[in-house]
Write a structure and sequence with these properties.
Layout lengths: L1 E5 L2 H11 L4 E7 H17 L3 E7 L8 H8 L7 E7 L1 H13 L3 E6 L11 E6 L2 E6 L5 E5 H5 L3 H12 L1 H15 L5 H19 L5 H22 L8 H15 L7 H20 L3 H10 L5 H12 L1 H10 L1 H4 L3 H13 L1 H9 L4 H10 L13 H10 L9 H8 L6
Parallel strand pairs: 1-8, 2-3, 2-4, 4-5, 5-8
Antiparallel strand pairs: 6-7
């Protein structure tokens, strides 16, 4: 995959297309992104004799869902076309999905350093109101115009930082899942993800002393995170319980016809909450952990199914129940074995928990980049937060700190 972040992104794009003998192009953007960058890209392509089919998605809130997938898919013809997504992570997910289904290549041209999914192979889609990651294809190249990135709305830039700060809890969850349930774990990829996150945290401390360098660093870090997911063919290097919260909120907002919130903004807020779970874990001695495990009965699968219906509605409950089969079908011997592993590895669990900053430290990082630190600031109510605490665990099948805390009867109170 070729990646370029700089002031010659359009020229680099033209050279790449020529080198690869691409002629037929489908350019996809929305009205805002077309104004920000798409029009210049289209003009450059036409000046250089490429045949361009231009698709501009319209609507107040563009979503990676059936409606917009169809708008991109319908104009497809029999020509072997290269898709170019000019815009956000949402636009990239739509084009990634369509290019995979049409057996085409695609190129990503981000217009804001807002999310970490530009380089990934999975599309984060909402299908029939159910948020899920669908296998698609990674871009063959990413060309990010630095001037456009620097001019992006500040809330989108803060969203990118928020997505990166979510790696504090995501990486801890990944290590925890490897330790307790044997999920595959790649320490080299984890180290790459951590290094990208730390570069963003360092920039937060000196933000705006050199704006172009700030944006270069965060965009490079977001691309690196996508590559980490691509190499592992898994979202684990970048996604844990904080993304479960984010996806729960996204599905609720959609179901209730409420305004969307930027992905990284939700992730940043959720990271504060998930850090509180790790804070509770750090506060327990081994003796206290054993006492809690012994006092907390195994969850009832039927009650879990009822909670899924309550939290997500009957329309998508069956999909979530299917994804949670390992959790719901765990036998008593398997559960007791997992409890024994928790006790056996408590010191290692504590070491993992110690890598997660305090909730206050994450709040401080978000404040420095202009990110939201309170749910109410972006339209999330106390009910939304309380319900996420109760139901977010079921969004994905991955084992996270939320599962561990359920087993120990540790509940977050706000």
């Amino acid at each position: 995959m070729k990646t370029y972040v700089g002031k010659e992104a359009i020229s680099e794009l033209i050279g790449f297309l020529r080198d690869n003998r691409a002629h037929y192009i489908t350019l996809v953007s929305d009205e805002n992104e077309y104004t920000a960058l798409g029009q210049r890209v289209e003009e450059a392509l036409r000046e250089n004799k490429f045949e361009v089919k231009n698709i501009i998605l319209r609507g107040e809130e563009i979503g990676a869902n059936e409606r917009y997938v169809v708008q991109v898919l319908l104009p497809a013809d029999l020509e072997e076309r290269v898709y170019i997504a000019v815009g956000s992570g949402t636009l990239t997910d739509i084009v990634r999905f369509v290019s995979y289904r049409t057996r085409s290549f695609f190129i990503s041209m981000p217009t804001a350093p807002s999310v970490d999914g530009f380089a990934a192979s999975g599309s984060s889609m909402t299908i029939m109101d159910y948020k899920q990651t669908i296998q698609s294809r990674p871009p063959v190249a990413i060309f990010a115009d630095l001037e456009t990135l620097c001019d992006a709305p500040r809330e989108l830039i803060a969203s990118g930082f928020g997505d990166m700060f979510g790696k504090y809890t995501a990486l801890a969850d990944w290590e925890l899942a490897n330790l307790l349930v044997g999920e595959p774990y790649d320490p080299e990829i984890a180290a790459r993800s951590q290094a990208a996150r730390d570069r963003c945290a360092q920039r937060a401390e000196v933000l705006e002393q050199d704006w172009e360098e700030d944006i270069q660093v965060v965009m490079d870090a977001l691309i690196e995170e996508g590559i980490c997911m691509l190499v592992t063919n898994n979202s684990r290097p970048a996604s844990g319980a904080e993304h479960q919260f984010s996806h729960f909120w996204e599905m609720r907002l959609l179901r209730e016809n409420r305004p969307a919130i930027f992905h990284g903004t939700k992730v940043g807020l959720a990271s504060i909450l998930v850090a509180k779970y790790y804070e509770m874990i750090r506060g327990l001695s081994k003796e206290q952990a054993v006492e809690r495990l012994n006092k907390t009965p195994k969850y009832d699968p039927q009650q879990e199914i009822q909670k899924i219906h309550e939290g997500y509605g009957d329309e998508i409950a069956d999909s979530i129940i299917q994804a949670q089969s390992r959790h719901l079908n765990m036998t008593e011997p398997q559960y007791e074995d997992l409890k024994a592993r928790i006790v056996e590895h408590w010191e290692e669990i504590q070491k993992i928990a110690s890598k997660v900053p305090s909730p206050t430290e994450i709040q401080s990082l978000l404040t420095k980049v202009g990110g939201a630190t309170h749910p109410e600031a972006v339209g999330l109510s106390q009910r939304d937060v309380r319900d996420a605490i109760q139901y977010a665990m079921y969004v994905r099948k991955a084992f996270t700190v939320l599962n561990l805390c359920q087993m120990m009867g540790l509940k977050l109170v706000i």
